[in-house]
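re the bet — no i am not wrong, look at it urself. input seq straight from the record:
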Amino acid sequence: MACQLDGASTSGNPLDLRVEFVETDAGAGIAVIEDDRSPKEQISVLPSLLPIGIPPVLKSIQDEIREEFFNHPEELEVHQARHTQRVFPRETDLASLFAIGTSQSQTSIQVKRNMTTGEMLGFYEEETDTGGTLTAKNSCSLFRTPGPPSQSIRGTTTNFPFWPGGMDEANVDELLKASADTIIDFKTGLKSCPPGLDHGIDYSKFKSPQASGVFNLADILDETNFENIFQSEENPSSPDSLQAQEDGSQDDISIEQTKVLDNLLPEEKQQTDNTKDTNASEQKRTQRSPLEEVWAEKVDISSDVVDFHKKIPKMAHEWPFELDTFQKQAVLKLENHECVFVAAHTSAGKTVVAEYAIALSAKHMTRVVYTSPIKALSNQKFRDFKQTFGDVGLITGDVQIHPEAFCLIMTTEILRSMLYNGSDVIRDLEWVIFDEVHYINDMERGVVWEEVLIMLPEHCNVILLSATVPNTLEFANWIGKTKRKKIYVISTLKRPVPLEHYLYTGNSTKTSDELFMLVDSQRRFLTTGYKKAVAAKDERSTKHSKSFGARNQRGGNMAADKNIWLSLINRLRKKDQLPVVAFTFSRRRCDENAARLESLDLTSSAEKSEVHIFFNRCAQRLKGTDRKLPQVLQMASLLEKGVGVHHSGILPILKEVVEMLFAKGLVKLLFATETFAMGVNMPARTVVFDSIRKHDGTTMRNLLPGEYIQMAGRAGRRGLDSTGTVIVLCKGDVPESSELNQMMLGRPTKLESQFRLTYSMILNLLRVEQLRVEEVMKRSFSEFHARKDSKTQEERMRKLQEQIDEKFDITELLARSDYERYLDNCEELLHLRAHVQEETLFSNAGMKMLQAGRVMVLDCAPYQQHVAVLLKINSKKTEKTLTVLVMTQEADVSDDVTTSKWLPASLLRKTLFRPERKASQVVTEVSPKHVSYITDRSFKIPADKIIADHERRKIPRFSLDPPDQSTVIATQELLRLVESNPDGLNQVDLLSDLGLNQIELVEEVMRMRSLEDSIATAFTCVNLPRFDSQVDEVEAYLKLKKEFNNIKYLLSEASLHLLPEYQQRVEVLKELRYVDTGGAVQLKGRVACEISSHEIVLTELVFENVFATLDPVEIVALLSCVVFQQKVDLDEVNFTPRLKEGMHRIIEVATMVGATQWQLGIRQPVEDFVATLKFGLVEVVYEWAKGTTFKDITNLTSVQEGMIVRTIQRLNETCHDVRNAARVIGDPSLHAKMEKCSELIKRDIVFAASLYTH
């Protein structure tokens, strides 16, 4: 394309040059060229290099050049003004006064393609939300102006988050309507009384005029939608129209509209065609699937993907091995840009799915985030992915490496922070990979996964990697419903390396062969193996007791433990079953076990040399004094012998050394806690359990199946071992067979919601007016079960509303009578009667009265007010029932006329059923709640004979036999009682005769009597002429309304189980002035948003100026209370006077916050709230900030080195949070102090760089 600026080329003026603008580089740019040819020689139109020409634009290039050149003279070069200055004669143009100036483009150019072939068909303009007014401070739109580069990675708390996917965007007016929780039905729900007035006009009595035979054709045409008809003619093969035909959407043209058009046809044709079409349409409607939302689909992996390489001829990433079926299926879904949930056994190869997503992101030039539950796993994955993909970044609390990379590794907490803070990284995200998703069951941190999944924008696809869990479909359904995306669930059928489970009862070299298989590779529990283990243990215990008597419980156990480990490791070594991971559920026992085996040497001289060189090279990162730490020296000695220790008390750099040496096969025996089972693939040949019992923070218990499977899954190296070996040590008695069976073969723990409300979450959402906390709560996994059938419930509500609308006459009747109150009283009375009967009949006094022959009155269909005699009491697992003989009449069951149970006579039990035809009987079972009352009458009957006769006549060949004489006599006796007592029999008094003395039951009996009195005298509706015939219809109507209101409540926010707690927490925030009465976040609330833990207490400390009089070393020491989690006796901590004063001040503030919570309904005792602040490391951090060496501070406490390092690292993040809080409130002094705090603690071994990142 070319365009030119006209002018006189002979003037020599640069403005008069004749130039042309020519498209270059396949449409990528525009070039300006001079044109000295005559107009005849000029090219009128240059051919476009784009296949279908230049896309449309809002303004021509000429207009843009003129606007930029003439309207902004201040941008011209000052020293060249003489070349550009020019005077133009003024021309009067009154029409220009009416012109509207151009504004920023509100459209974007989009490409129209053939969705089948991908061929480009053309361009079209599309409206966008872009504009200079949309920024991160006022909009959740992806089209808002990007923020400054300094905030592009982590964002800032003043930014709005991007709009969560799956959540309908709403403007402020809609939010206000939603907060009122009103649903307006414009057909039947219009108000007749203005707000504030007592009376209005009821328009329902003004009936619409009857339709005449004259109709307006324009009205009919207005109601008919011809858009789809024309669309089908123009593009009959379009995907939309084809989909509409497949879905039966052509039938969605209203039947009512069809009927209107059919009215134009002759009557005979109308009757035949209309009936045929309507029936066909109705049949299609009934055949449609119900309104069931299924967002998860299980992918079949039982057979291989035969055409895999045809579907993906050129993969984004290749591996040197053939992919498993589940991996191929996952790759296919990723290529289709679909979300997957991969639940696979340990070491099955879930990482392949993550790697392919990363490769796809690189191919598409988008970004991908890999999240993990722990920082250590993030570091490991950073190293692995960096070796594979190169351009990989790492973001953790204290480290930020290459954050501009396309692939970012981070913890889930960091991603949550980025989402709330509106990080611009989120714009470019194509995939978010969640590893170890089963960690969502963690009570403390599981909520983070739910928050992130809810807050992710729509354009972000998710990949979930998890160990095998039983409810993958349920969890995937929740994610799909929340994000409104289909989730494909891919699960492995079996482990790649099967496991064999053993019990080990040996304790010496002689007994080292006492290894008994309990579960084989086919997952069969072997009872014979269990019995052999029990027998071996019993035999040795008997011999020992005879020879030595009772064993020394303390010293003997320690020596025995050493012998057990030595015998087992030597056996495994001989059988070539090393390396082995020994899981021990105590940090102290891990250290003790390793120390006891100092005589054990599992490495060759060459391996010792390799370990020594590697360890020294890693130790070079440490300061000279840090290299001499006892833990460092001890670990170096152990590792050279092939023994390692791995738990949270070990220094991070030493844990990484152990992991790397284990991965190289140089650590033969590793004592570890269960955290080693999470994360990077480090399988062993054998796994040993020191015990199957652990302390979960509350009590000692056996391992859960999921915990056992996760750890046992480390056994078996794919490609090296045919089976993995799992051994359970039997140091004491052999565990129960049922316990072992449940632990080894039981179902893993289900994924369960740990969603809870935090002040940080509430404040982060309240600061964005468009987002509502209730919407986030509604989308949590904990609410999924109550709302998963919401579409079905909404459809049921619609049908109920239609039924209610049809009963307009009953609505009027209820408005002018006391029917509703009457039936409410009746329903309450029946409920109380049923409950009291169930509680009293089988009490001690009730059982004495319930003997065979006791006469009672029933109140259940079809035996309303029928007398019966008790034959026997049946005791079942769920409840007790009564076998009774009921007096009826012949053909009673087929009678259609029944007495309403809502009549006062029935409710007050004034009359008894009296047969109008020949008396008959039925032997049946009834529930205690169906007994109206027990009478004071009884007579002797042969109950067994009556029951036997009844059972005999149930046999087909005896069904026509007459009843036995005993049955006839009992029936006649009941008839005699009814005829002699037409007004009812005397009933047993529950209070006096049964001696009822439970307060709750006595109150219920008194309430029953009060209700009976009111039903007898207090209601006028019972006197209405048609009461007997109307009461059942009115009750059915009220039942419909009750069901409608119940469904409406369940679908409303009022039914959220966390709503009361949310309201209480908001009241706390209002009381402490974090939000105003309208819910707007105030200054204190904005400060709290900057803080990640104990946000309320720290914010109060900042506003109370508690840190103003303290030095940085004192501030950082006291702040350790919010990150340290271990219990330490404070008597062992030496506080300076100023530290002690500061501690008391912090406790005062925490007590004030806790008391406010308690007063406003949050049921957490003040003492428990204050106890969450732990001051056990104040002295240690104080000395560290003063410059004391790490070796010296370890002598000040019993807390292990690894816990000290972890606390100080987290403390650095808290210092950054308080520093940001100081910036928000404009306190430069506090800001400088917190900077200094961070500098004081950020040194030496505590902040030594990870081996995985360098």
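see?? Residues 147 and 1024 are 73 Å apart (CA to CA). told u. also The chain has a mean pLDDT of 81. so pay up
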